[in-house]
Amino acid sequence: MSSSGKNKKSKAECGQSADNTVSIYTDGGAKPNPGKGGYGVVLKCRQKRKELSGGYRKTTNNRMEITAAIRGLEALKKPATVILYTDSRYLVNAMNKGWARRWRRNNWMRTREEPALNADLWARLLKLCDQHNVTFQWVKAHDSCKENNRCDALASKARRQKNLAIDKGFRRSGSR
Predict the structure, then answer these.
(1) What is the pTM of this model?
(2) Overall average pLDDT of the 33-54 stretch
C-alpha cells in the first residue's frame, strides 16, 4: 500500500513493471459452481498487451482459475520472468506455499487417503513454472486493479458463449 492512501495500489501490487518482466493477470469462474465456466487473461510486457479467454460447458471455479494461469504462461514464446496476478487464494497458496509441488511428490495425494484435486491442471502448471521464473501475487477481486477486472469481464463473457468446449479433466468427484 502506498503511504498516501489506503485504497491506492503500489506498482508491485498491480503490475506496473518497467523492465522486461511479464505481467500476467488472470481470472476464472464457473456459474453455477460447477457449471459453465470461463477464464480471462491479460499479458503485458513493456508496451505490448494481449488478451486471451475461453470457456467450458461444465467445470469449476478452481479449474478455471488454474486454467487461466496455464493459458497465460503457454502464451509466452520464450522463458521469462513473470509476475502472475490472481484473485484466487487457492492458486496463490498452492504455488507459494509449495502445496502443488508436494502433491506431485506424493503422487498427487493431499493426504494418505485424499487425492489432490485438479491434478491434471497442477501438473501442466508446474511444468510451465519450471520453464519460467514465476511469482504468484494475490490481488483483491473486483477492486482497483483494472487488469484483474478486465480478466473477470473476459471470463464472464467467455462462459456465456455458445458451443463451449468440454473440460476433459472435469470429474464431479475429483474437481472443485
Answers:
(1) 0.89
(2) 97
